[in-house]
Amino acid sequence: MPLQKRSSYLTWDEYFMGVALLSAKRSKDPSTQVGACIVNSKNKIVGVGYNGFPIGCSDEDFPWARQGCFLETKYPYVCHAELNAVINKISVELDDCRIYVGLFPCNECAKVIIQSGIKEVIYLSDKYSQTDQTIAAKKMFDSAHVRYRKFEVTKKNIVIDFENP
């Protein structure tokens, strides 16, 4: 009997969302870890990022709090995964690329995505769908003709085994 190809390989969407989720594991944020993976039309990864403080801003010197006085929370300091992925790009242009993210982008990241030329957003979670930031992001995406769709989960998990590669 001839050898058959594997049938349990990852789809492109599963692969790129997996890269985004693996990137999120680099985040030191104790409450929210988000990763992003930018892919061109040839299914080549051209940028990855995760949420964290800017280069040179020590994780020990800035707050991780979610509530309190604005300057004593993480919000004025953290760079979101989408922004970092765009900044970390290895391609000159991101026109017609797509971005895979664990969490639907906020309005600020939507601006970066639109300005960079990315044309599709694939997200895993939209848990903040009722917030003003997400509503504004969707309004801008719709106006700029940036498609967005929820990632269709077909595999509950993907295991990375360092002992049996």
Distance between the termini: 26 Å
Gyration radius over CA: 17 Å
What is the strand tally?
5
Q: Which structural class matches the secondary elements?
A: alpha/beta
Order of helices and strands: HEEHEHEHE
Mean pLDDT: 95
Major beta sheet summary: 5 strands, mixed
What is the helix fraction of residues, given as a range? 25-40%
Overview of this protein structure:
There is one protein chain. The chain is an alpha/beta fold. It has helices at 12-24, 81-87, 107-116, 132-144; strands spanning 35-39, 45-50, 98-103, 120-125, 147-150. A five-stranded mixed sheet has the order 2-1-3-4-5, with helices on both faces. Strand 4, helix 4 (132-144) and strand 5 form a beta-alpha-beta unit. The longest helix is centred in the first third of the chain and has 13 residues, at 12-24. The radius of gyration is 17 Å and the shape is globular.
Give a brief description:
The chain contains 4 helices and 5 strands.
Key structural traits:
single chain; 165 residues; alpha/beta; five-stranded mixed β-sheet; 4 helices; 5 strands; 16% strand; globular
